[in-house]
Amino acid sequence: MKVISQIKLPIEQEMDLFEKKFYQSMSSQVALLNRITHYIVNRKGKQMRPMFVFLVAKMVSNGTVNERTYRGASVIELIHTASLVHDDVVDDSNRRRGFFSINALWKNKIAVLVGDYLLSKGMLLCIEHEDFDLLKIISVAVREVVEGELLQIEKARRLDITEEVYYEIIRQKTATLIASCCSLGAASVNSDANCVEDMRHFGELIGMAFQIKDDLFDYGEEKIGKPTGIDIKEQKMTLPLIYVLNKVSSKERNWLINSIKNHNKDKKRVKEVISFVKEEGGLDYAIAKMHTFKDKALKLLEQFPTSPYKDGLELMVNYVIDRKR
């Protein structure tokens, strides 16, 4: 059995019902919008975020979920989908998960409007049912994602990212959404504030490990849907590179910065940078940090009794760092 199917096993019924509710939550009076949202739903990814919501909710409540849990899962998926649609416009990307992106099929203006629509639908879903605690969680996440993106853009221009700034960027850009999935799951079943905060922290740690794993793919040989070295070509400062920049001689550091700034489109030079980062221990350092985040996350689960939902979350944590794409 595939790992994802194994993780889904204790929440299979919830995920099936969620898909129907999620599709309903996107419905509109505008035929064009319905055509586009139908296209989005039929090309869904692994749906890890709703899985986090249901697994956490069932773990902290001895196996129960309610309508708030379904709304929490729908809200997070609406917000996440909106961010992907907007990202493809910003990055001028024509493909998403092997399919044409919304902007490739319907052009940028419609893609931006669809992203805005999904964002507003997510917020309204909370407001209409007076789930103001859930609305606060998701609103903070949206703000942080935007701040993280802008912080990365600002720092990329000067290539002066420290390890601390890198962690702040990935915390906001990636980890905050996974953190909100886990806190939404806990809050939806009326857990106390300490439990909601622990689950938020748990999700944040997973998100950090998830992004470091993504950064490592840039140095790997696996076929993951993006070419090796793409982060270097896009002048993105990731952990393996940041670590090496801070430990090598000033001459080597100047060569690295010059390579990224002025020769990032030169395939041969990019390969040299990748080899150099590997030789200097950049990958080993990033892998060790990823495992530190993973271990801290698993530690937070120890307070809960053994259950299929806790097992599912532990599987999910390990999947995050063992995945091949």
Which features does this protein show?
325 residues, mainly alpha, two-stranded antiparallel ribbon, 2 strands
Ordered list of secondary-structure elements with their pairings:
Blueprint: H1 3-8, H2 12-25, H3 31-41, H4 48-60, H5 67-90, E1 95-96, E2 99-100, H6 102-128, H7 132-158, H8 163-188, H9 193-217, H10 230-233, H11 239-245, H12 250-262, H13 267-279, H14 282-301, H15 308-322
Antiparallel strand pairs: 1-2
Describe it:
Strands 1-2 form a two-stranded antiparallel sheet. The protein has helices at residues 3-8, 12-25, 31-41, 48-60, 67-90, 102-128, 132-158, 163-188, 193-217, 230-233, 239-245, 250-262, 267-279, 282-301, 308-322, and strands at residues 95-96, 99-100. By secondary structure, the chain is an all-alpha fold. It contains 15 helices and two strands.
Shape: globular
Assembly category = single chain
**Distance between the amino and carboxyl termini:** 18 Å
Order of helices and strands: HHHHHEEHHHHHHHHHH
Strand content: under 5%
**What can be said about the biggest beta sheet?**
2 strands, antiparallel
Low-confidence runs of at least 5 consecutive residues? 222-226
Structural class: mainly alpha
CA-based gyration radius = 20 Å
Total number of helices: 15
